[in-house]
User: Fold this.
Amino acid sequence: MKIKSFLCSVLALAAFVACQEKQSILTPSQVSLDPLIIKVAAAGETKTVELKANCEWEASAPSWVTVAPTSGIGDTSLSLIVAANDGKDRDGELVVTAKNANSTAKVLVFQSGKEQVNPDPTPGPGPEPGGTSIKTAEQLAAFLSEASTLAADEEWTIDADIDCGGAKIAPVGSFSASLDGKNHKIYNFVVESADTKAGVVITNTGTIKNIIFGSADGSKYDGKSVIGYAEGAVGEYAGLVAENAGTLENVTNFATIDFKATPEKPGDYLGVGGIAGLASGAGNFVNCTNYATINASGTVTQEVGIGGILGYTQSSDVKLTSCVNAANLTVTMPVAKVLMIGGIAGRTNGTIVLDKCENKGDIAYEQAEAPKTWMAIGGIGGVFYNGATLSSCKNSGRISSNLQQVTRAGGILGTLNRGGTVEKCENSGEVSIAQAEANANWQAAGGIVGSQEREDAAPAKLIGNTNTGKVSVDLAGNTTGHQNRIAVGGIIGLGTLVTEVSGNTNKGAVSVDNKGAADSWAGGVVGAMVSTAADYPTALSNNVNEGAVSAKTADDANSIAGGVIGNNGYYPGKTDNSKITLTGDKNTGAVTCGNVSKVGSIAGFNLGTLTNCVAGGSVNGTKLAEGNLASLTQGSASSGKANGTTLAK
Assistant:
């Protein structure tokens, strides 16, 4: 339904004062009033307004309002006696002015009337003052106040940049209409949610497009705009939009997201994002950009997804296209369960699609207190489940974690779980896991994907990806006995059920340095690949490594390094790992390893089959040549086959 003429008039008047900034600190000769709007019944009422002043002042009001006192010095309470109104609705202003005229404060007084223009409780649509165009802070506040009542077919536009003057904006509960900002800017505002969900809009099922939030010039943060919680409130989802099941297109956010978590359980999971906290239904994010700082505080026991664009999604049919995170994202919040951080999205549970998305910010976790389970961090995503597809995505930010717990880190994706495809993605950022304390937790790091897992689901594919960033794992003293051990790779660190790894290229240095004795595996393309499902034989083909690869442990007995793959098939406690094949893969990088029996130009330790691979570079300082090709293609401890290997030219 349309906003009625009578209602719009009230909202426009209310908005006038809603967008005036309250003065919390009085400078010489200054006055301020609270509240800034008063609504009075037709029968008349007596209201009280609090005045703060550090000077002499005078007060005035409309003829139908009696104010007392009318003058004074300093703070006081003003009494407003509003006479009965037998006519139409009316409004006026209480005005308090400093005697030197340097400061003025106003309160809008709106009184209902007994005489109504249209007493019909179900009137038809009426004319709308100003139509559906928003040009001022007053009109914006009126629009936001009634946005939840708009029908899905209504179309509104923002036709000017809007400075909200530091006003506190109440979140829009739900929005199903269309709002086109025409690339204008809305800035200098504060959102304080009293709910567990915080955002300018709580739930969006409509279309919001072409708007810049939190910047006066469209290029930098205004230093004031914040989206957060009222005093005493705690969070479940937070973002520019708390929950999105509609379309967000060409939306840019600079406004700080200030998330406050609680150890008590407001929901099964938490989601925090620069654009949306949660994708609660099928929806689209198109050409959205985040410059916002995301602050997360408190301690939580739920799973937490934090993303530059999207925090968490439980839904399928969510698509992010050409979205960019340009903000550094450093998380220091203690978490007592799983933590997932991504430059674009933290965690996804459905068949989400990301196409041409890019992260430019550094993504880091810095916290001495470890989660009780594990965490994942990636330039594009933390953890993607159930058939996610990433194509043509890029990361140039540094990905790092100092977490003393199981960590999966990737230039594009921390963990790919239950199938999915990562194709034609590029990483140029450094990927680093550095742990200063001894621990017994397995680790995985990759230039594209940290780890791929789950044997009970459809297999995954990594095709045509490129990494040029350094990938390193540096551990004070890791002694893990977990089957996954420690794996680092130029493309993928650890894979447990990957059908196809083909056409990928790594040019970055890959290294693992474990000052403990746990098995540590490094590969130019894959750190370790194990396959325990007979129905899904894994194949590597036509991958290329040009980067240096090194692996070292405390006594060197448990290190493995290969130019293409470090550990091909060895999985402690498992058997029948000979099904993994490499065909046409190539290495020209230098490979070094403390364990001289588990180092090779193609594979460090091979239980599968190498066919028609191209070996080059050097192994522990010895350059590959025709005379040593057979002995240096794979580590001497390998029991797998190497057929048709040729020397790289």
Summary: The first helix runs from residue 5 to 18.
